[in-house]
Amino acid sequence: MQRQYSLPNCKLVLEGIEDIPAEGALDPRPPINVLVNAECHIQGHEQPLSGGRTFFEGLVNAVNHYAQSFFSSVSAPESRRGKASPVTIERLDQNRHRIVIHPEAMSSEEAAAARTGPLEMDLTTVQLFDLVEAVDQFFADSRTLPDLSCQLQPVSRKHAKAERPLQERALPAAVGISGLAAAAVAVFLLPIPNLERPRDPAAQSRNGNNPNETSAAQAGQTGQPDSEELAAMIASAREIVDPNQLNALRQSLYDTIDQAWSEEPEFSEPLSYKVSVGEDGAVLGYDGMDLVSDESVNQTPLLDLVYIPPEGGVAPRETIALFKVVFRPSGVLEVSPWRGFRSPPSDGPTIDDPAQIEELTGSVYDQINNAWDEEPSFEQDLVFRVGVTSEGKIAEYEAVNQPARDYGQEIPLPSLVERSPSSSTAAETATTEASTVPPVPLAQFKVVFTSRGVLQVNPWDGYPDS
Prior knowledge:
The chain is an alpha+beta fold. The chain has 15 helices and 16 strands. The protein has 3 domains: 2-153, no CATH class; 227-337, no CATH class; 354-459, no CATH class. The two termini are 40 Å apart.
């Protein structure tokens, strides 16, 4: 049996067997009690990390401890970790991290190839976040290795190292106390003001309005919802897991953010957020996945997109969907389900007529080729999946490989998309029936922008038999 936990930049694959098969009716998803092999695939690395139970336990423990230290900026002392772990993670710089697999955790093939030295693999911060999320998905799966649990303990702040000497940290306090004393002396020397009772106290309220009440009412309708109220709402709401409904809400959220994100990016690192969305497509709140994302949220349109009721607070929701939203410095936007898809979403009705597909192939090629007038700066081909209506209008597109996500601003697809009314209300369609998909038939094409400046357009599943 095999279990996969997939994210855009990381995939965990576990193979194992059930220790004691249950008697009676067949279990549609039997538990895995004995791990045979584990693989960790990282985007951009051809060879995965693999091994048995020792490797996998060491990997998840190392990821959990490193993530705890990374997010809290407090490193756990060696005495808390016990004996040396077969898998360790080291921080190289602000955006690079290194996984080290020691020989005792390697498979026999890897150990023979590495001989006596450890295996190493470098990750970016975004790849590390996806690895952490994949490990979280594994721990949330009670049907896979239920005896393996997350072993984390709180780390005291006393282990944090002081960034500046005591003299430098005490200097601002000393200056503040001196300033306060000087201000007190100056105030003491000022003459006592003469106070007069107002002649007509009722004049301030003749118009029937209370300025304090007006400002308080206005303050309740702006800003990000309270984090505690938002967390309570997410914990009490039912999470949407239907693949078709998730896919419709994902497309709706992508369109909403993409249309509102008009400013040129000024940040140098990807900004990642956990975004909660209602079943009607409304953005309910967000949570930055790191300190840089929290501090740079004003460079994204999320602040303007959060829905806040007139009375303030958080709009109550019975069902919500959670998504991971990444704003890249190159101007590329990525939106994916927070826990991934349980199963592939339905494609909806398709166009299968051979003559019509052949005609649409030429139409799509002409539209894109005429609009693509920039010299390519990328060195690898950009691959996209493009959906086209029977009228030849480009209704949707999706980046297939990582170079397509990184250089999406150099191709004309965003300006060529013309969404039909039925596909533009995907979120509303999804709330009516969980399994409903946009009713407009689409022909799917594989569009490749080569580094040589040549455009390739072919049917996604090949040309149908006539």
